[in-house]
Amino acid sequence: MTITKSVTYAATVSGEVVNGARVPLSVNGDRLLDLIALAGGAKSAVYDTFVRLSRDGVTVTIPMERLVSDPGENIFVQPGDVLTLVRVPQTYSVLGATGQNAQITFNAERITLAEAIAKAGGLQDLRSDPTGCFSSASSPRPS
User: Fold this and answer.
1) Rounded to two decimals, what is the model's pTM?
2) What's the pLDDT tens digit per position in 53-74?
3) Distance from C-alpha of 49 to C-alpha of 52, rounded to nearest angstrom
4) Element (H, E) at 72
5) Which of 8, 79, 113, 128 is the most buried (most CB within 10 A)?
6) Closest to 111 (Cα-Cα) out of 94, 129, 92
């Protein structure tokens, strides 16, 4: 059996992938995750990566985590599509009586409030009131 691929029947993969390239599509069709795999996979963790698909002048961006977990999002690629993987680290801000006041990256899919405070150096015993702790994590979306 021979599988034929045409250069005109291709899509482009770029951004946070191991080998960005113009990828020939198979005759039976390829899905988004197939194209990412053909480009060597994502460089960044799934929870920090967003997938941007540009097709016919329209661009849509979704978290890669959703693409991986929801088979309905893994749509077929069409010739001329441009698939770009974008790394957007998820962060949270820590202010007040902690070891450091800063914006800190999660470096994990999810973290608890206790883990977040620990990553900021913990509460300072002489300055902190544990009843005043609350969380507010940001989830930036690439434009």
Assistant:
1) 0.71
2) 999 999 999 999 999 999 999 9
3) 10
4) none
5) 128
6) 92
